[in-house]
Each structure stands twice: as structure tokens, then as C-alpha cells.
Known about the structure:
This protein has helices spanning 80-83, 87-102, 112-127, 132-146, 190-201, 204-208, 212-230; strands at residues 4-16, 20-27, 31-37, 55-62, 68-78, 167-169, 174-176. The protein is of the alpha+beta class and 243 residues long. The strands form 2 sheets. The protein has a 5-stranded mixed beta barrel. A two-stranded antiparallel sheet has the order 6-7. A hairpin with a 3-residue loop joins strand 2 (20-27) and strand 3. Helix 5 (190-201) packs across helix 7 (212-230). It is elongated and about 65 Å long. The termini are far apart.
Amino acid sequence: MQLYRDDGVVLRTQKLGEADRIITILARKTGRVRAVAKGVRRTKSRFGARLEPFTHVDLMLYPGRSLDVITQAEVIRPYGAALTPDYPRYTAGVAMLETAERFTPEDKEPSLRQFLLLVGGLRALGETARDPRLVLDAYLLRSLSVAGYAPALEECARCGTRGRLPAFAIPAGGMVCGSCRPHGAAAPGAGTVALMAALLQGDWDSADSSERRHQVECSGLVAAYLQWHLEHSIRSLRHVERV
């Protein structure tokens, strides 16, 4: 079988047998790949430590019947080194990895934009002093946008009306006008909506200077909106803390 080469971020690992692991990777060209790393749990393994979550690795693999097999792994950047000692950053990073896997449900379906978003998100978590929850919320909103689920923030998600939009309706797809407002819709503050827009657009000056109450409200809306569209809870979000 013909070997192939790709680079990707390790999303998670699972034990297999006595010495092997199944490695789930979001790869640049191939998309989500599940591959076996043979013997990595042995103390003398050549590349066991290189295949840990958060690690950006360059891989050589060959296709298998159900799982590919990793034959070589070289570290490009170990993002986990900066995240593991910092609990808020670590938990935000775990939520990113889980979200990336949920947004790439099909094996070997290329998803370059999701891959680049993940790398950028992990880099921002580990290399900037920004609030990790703000970085996470920006990543979640942009991942939703890439998947086609960007929330409507400047016009009614139902009728397209611009102007005063008093409510955020998750099933409708974002902000809605008074006429389209369904029962039970949230009523976020103007600062919260502005923060969501800033995170989507990468306006970090506005995001960093936002009030804490708007950050908390934004996080709640983003988490609920994400899990609605994924039709699945992101378990790691419950562990995310704001410093």
C-alpha cells in the first residue's frame, strides 16, 4: 500500500490492546483521520510522546482497512506545553479539540478552514495573554461560520429587517426583530451582541475592552448556539472557567 504524508493536530487518543493507541487527527489535506500508532504505550516507543493531544505533527501513514497506520511522526509545534500548566487555557483548548472533531464527522473529508482555525485558536491560547474564554468564543463562532451557521447579528434572522433587534433566538439563527421574536428567546444586552460581532470579525481591541458581564452573557449564548447546531453537547465546555 502506498504511504502518504500529511500534517495535523492530534485531537484525542484511545488505548488499543496492550501497547497501541488509536490517534484521532485533524489533518491539513486529508481531514479527520483515525490511525493506529503501534507500540506507543511502551516505554521504549520511538514516538509515543509526539502523539499527544494538542500536538501539531508531521506524519507518514499507510492506509488500512478500517484504520490507517502511523509509521513516522515528527513534532511541528507542541501546543500542549503552554496549555497544560494553565487550567483555564487547558480546558478552553480541550473544548476546541472536541469542537473540531464534532465539525469534521466524516473521516478523510478535507476541511482546511477548520484545520487552520484550530491551529490559530491553539496558537492564540498559548501565545497571547488574552482571556482564554474570549479566545474560545471567537474560535467557536468562527467554526460555526465556516460550517455555515454564523449567527445573524445585524439583521433579523427570520425576516431580514435591520434596526432594533431585541432578542436572540437560537432556533431562528440569531437576532430577531420584535415581530419575529419567539417565546423564550433571550434578550442580550447591546454590548453582548457587539462583542459577538467583534469576535466573529477579529476586532480584538473591542473584544478585550468589553465588560465582564457582556463576556459572560456572550459565552452562554455561544455555547447554547453551538450545541443546538451540533445537536450534541460539548462535554468539555462544562469545565471551562473564566479567570
